[in-house]
């Protein structure tokens, strides 16, 4: 194929006489005459596509520098005339084309939305970090948005948080972070379904108990724990400032005890007594203490089963569909 294509291209090359300084012998004249006779013969050529980039490139090279196409070294490992391209590109194999079609056909053309946005579309708010200012800002904003979107549909809050402390007890956020989310919950007109899916410690346990009565749930192997607020690291703070902070922590403790007593149905003395030291509760113990109402055993209880279907909800609310009007 390479020799045929080279002969075809040689037939397109312009004829030029040898320089006068060069003399041809009799054998050279015979070879030149034979080459001209062979080039003049009509070689059957297939129809050429004028839009073919490969043939167009060959024609331009033959017109500008024909010496690049004459007496080319033969290499069996490289397709002919491929080296004249600056950046040659080979066609994909059938297997590569098949893989690209099979695996990229349903791939999204735009980046997917972030996970909190996808959960928010299902009216789900997930608290999965300690209550630091950035988390509080996001949770309060999501609650306000869901109430504005529909003040009658319930809001589902999944909790797996250590509150305003880390798992080792070190303070990472102010107590006001937990109270900010709690106050936002109390201002909502929606039903709030709270679900503990890991741990609810400190202020996170308060948020778990602050859900709508009868709509507070806990996974079978989750843990709840209530404890006294801790004094933040004082560093080089003067003694008078340490005393001020200690008084503030005691005030927050009393507020936390009163709110837990309100939502669990226990007396203030009972809650204050168990909060002297960290008080851990499994799902059954949390139900007995009044933190939750139900334990979500697999296959027995589902939150979605308690949700009223949309048609029945519209009927009870007096909303008529546009088709019936």
Write a short abstract of this structure.
It is built from twelve helices and seven strands. By secondary structure, it is of the alpha/beta class.
Describe, in plain words, how this protein is organized in 3D.
This is ATP-dependent Clp protease proteolytic subunit. It comes from Brassica carinata (Ethiopian mustard). Belongs to the peptidase S14 family. GO terms for molecular function: ATP-dependent peptidase activity; ATPase binding; serine-type endopeptidase activity. This protein has a domain at 115-317: 2-enoyl-CoA Hydratase, Chain A, domain 1, CATH 3.90.226.10. Helices cover 43% and strands 10% of the residues. The protein contains twelve helices and seven strands. It has helices at residues 2-12, 26-40, 53-64, 94-104, 115-121, 133-149, 175-187, 203-209, 239-264, 268-274, 283-289, 310-316; strands spanning 124-127, 155-161, 192-201, 216-218, 223-226, 279-281, 294-295. Strands 1, 2, 3, 4, 5, 6 and 7 form a seven-stranded mixed β-sheet that branches. Helix 8 links the parallel strand 3 (192-201) and strand 4. Helix 6 (133-149) runs parallel beside helix 7 (175-187), helix 7 runs parallel beside helix 8 and helix 9 packs across helix 10. The longest helix is centred in the last third of the chain and has 26 residues, at 239-264. The chain is elongated. The two termini are 78 Å apart.
3D shape = elongated
Give the averaged pLDDT, no decimals.
Answer: 77
Q: What is the number of strand segments?
A: 7
- Helix tally? 12
Main beta-sheet annotation: 7 strands, mixed
- Element order: H for helix, E for strand: HHHHHEHEHEHEEHHEHEH
What is the CA–CA distance across the termini?
A: 78 Å
CATH class of the domain at 115-317: Alpha Beta
Assigned CATH superfamily of the domain at 115-317: 2-enoyl-CoA Hydratase, Chain A, domain 1
Radius of gyration: 41 Å
Protein name: ATP-dependent Clp protease proteolytic subunit
GO molecular function: ATP-dependent peptidase activity; ATPase binding; serine-type endopeptidase activity
Region (Disordered): 1-30
Pfam family, one: CLP_protease
């Amino acid at each position: 194929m390479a020799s045929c294509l080279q002969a075809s291209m040689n037939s397109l090359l312009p004829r030029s006489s040898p320089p006068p300084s060069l003399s041809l012998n009799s054998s050279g004249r015979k070879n030149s005459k034979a080459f001209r006779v062979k080039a003049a013969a009509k070689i059957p050529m297939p129809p050429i596509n004028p839009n073919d980039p490969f043939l167009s490139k060959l024609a331009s090279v033959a017109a500008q520098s024909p010496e690049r196409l004459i007496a080319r070294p033969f290499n069996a490992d490289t397709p002919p005339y491929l080296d004249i391209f600056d950046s040659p590109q080979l066609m994909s194999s059938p297997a590569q084309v098949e893989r690209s079609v099979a695996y990229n056909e349903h791939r999204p053309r735009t980046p997917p939305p972030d996970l909190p946005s996808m959960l928010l579309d299902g009216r789900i708010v997930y608290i999965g970090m300690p209550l630091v200012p950035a988390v509080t800002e996001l949770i309060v904003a999501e609650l306000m948005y869901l109430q504005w979107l529909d003040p009658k549909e319930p809001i589902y809050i999944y909790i797996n948080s250590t509150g305003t402390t880390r798992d080792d007890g070190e303070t990472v956020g102010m107590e006001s972070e937990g109270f900010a989310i709690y106050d936002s919950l109390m201002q909502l007109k929606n039903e709030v379904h709270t679900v503990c899916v890991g741990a609810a410690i400190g202020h996170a346990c308060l948020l778990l108990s602050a859900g709508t009565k009868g709509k507070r749930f806990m996974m079978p192997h989750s843990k709840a724990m209530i404890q006294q607020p801790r004094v933040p690291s004082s560093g080089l703070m003067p003694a008078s400032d340490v005393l001020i902070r200690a008084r503030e922590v005691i005030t927050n403790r009393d507020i936390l005890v009163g709110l837990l007593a309100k939502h669990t149905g226990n007396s203030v003395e009972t809650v204050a007594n168990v909060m002297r030291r960290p008080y851990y509760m499994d799902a059954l113990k949390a139900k007995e203490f009044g933190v939750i109402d139900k334990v979500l055993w697999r296959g027995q209880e589902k939150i979605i089963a308690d949700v009223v279907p949309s048609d029945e909800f519209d009927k009870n609310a007096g909303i008529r569909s546009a088709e019936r009007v």
